[in-house]
Amino acid sequence: MADNLKDLLKRSTSSQMLAAVIGFPVNHSLSPTIHNAGFKHLDLQWDYIPLEVEERDLEEVFEQMRSSNLKGLSVTMPYKAKAAMMVDECTPTAKVLGAVNCVTSTDQGLIGHNTDGDGFLKALKHDAGFDLKQKRVVVLGAGGAAKAITEALGRSEVSSLAVINRTQAKAESTADLAGDVGSVGELEDISEADLVVNATSLGMKDNSTDFPCPIDLIHSDQLVVDLIYHPLKTPWLSAAEQKGVRTHNGVSMLLFQATEAFTLWTGEQAPVSIMLRAIEEELERRSHK
């Protein structure tokens, strides 16, 4: 991988900036599609490439960022925590989460960001026009995505946020990220919530028959969001819709965590509609494979 990256940097011109997504694997990533659509629309001299990186090559990637035209980095599984230790500075949010999904190369060094939580907040506004103030929220799951949105929701004047997870200790550490409004929840909290978010993998194509919570706890006065976007509509969302519940998938969170990174790297306002269309077209293409 390291030699491959050096070759790419040599071939790119000094006037062209590079961004990349690193992870293992990355062949499924939609990030190149999203960002290159934005770069092309704004006629920016940027190119975005996927880099499948083994752990032994991580340090090399970050060193290349310090001395080349690789100016932006997206970080996906399983390297978000490691990236937080390799940058020169983390933003307050990334520091609290101990996870970085976006790196910028600046005169002050490499800065680690986490755009997932703010991307989720923007998605809520974009999809549902949802006002979080004094709302009761339940988050299902306690992994990286759950942590990011819990921390963001804790900054959003919600009245309560309950985290439900099979592992008590993980639920506790995630709920703590919401501050005073966070707590470990029980299933009965779901029916009292204004917003219910699935941040587990239950409903993905390889695990599509399981629901993240019993559907009889969901009702039509709620907003239900599933962070999964492939498939676009999980069985859980479909069952909720049949009960008259407003639902949204994870496409907009994917979009807005990317637009945040786009602006951090380029200084330009991201072309949201163009980047959204690129996601939708690529997901449609993949659905026919």
Please tell me about this protein's structure:
There is one protein chain. The chain is an alpha/beta fold and 289 residues long. It folds into two domains: 2-114 and 253-287, Leucine Dehydrogenase, chain A, domain 1 (Rossmann fold); 117-249, NAD(P)-binding Rossmann-like Domain (Rossmann fold, 3-Layer(aba) Sandwich). 40% of the residues lie in helices and 19% in strands. It has helices at residues 2-11, 31-41, 58-67, 80-86, 92-97, 116-128, 144-154, 168-176, 235-242, 251-266, 272-287; strands spanning 17-23, 46-52, 70-75, 89-90, 102-106, 109-113, 136-140, 160-164, 182-184, 195-198, 223-226, 246-248. The protein has a six-stranded mixed sheet, with helices on both faces. Helix 2 crosses helix 11 (272-287). It is globular and about 60 Å long. The mean pLDDT is 93.
Write the CATH fold name of the largest domain: Rossmann fold
Major sheet details: 6 strands, mixed
Radius of gyration: 19 Å
Q: How are the strands ordered across the major sheet? A: 2-1-3-5-6-4
Name the quaternary structure: single chain
How does CATH name the architecture of the largest domain? 3-Layer(aba) Sandwich
What is the succession of H and E elements? HEHEHEHEHEEHEHEHEEEHEHH
Summing up helix and strand content along with how strands pair, one would put the structural category as alpha/beta
What is the H level of CATH, i.e. the homologous superfamily of the largest domain?
Answer: Leucine Dehydrogenase, chain A, domain 1
Residue windows where pLDDT falls under 50 for at least 5 positions: none
Q: Strand-residue fraction?
A: 15-25%
CATH level-1 class of the largest domain = Alpha Beta
What value does the average pLDDT take?
93
Which term fits the overall shape?
Answer: globular
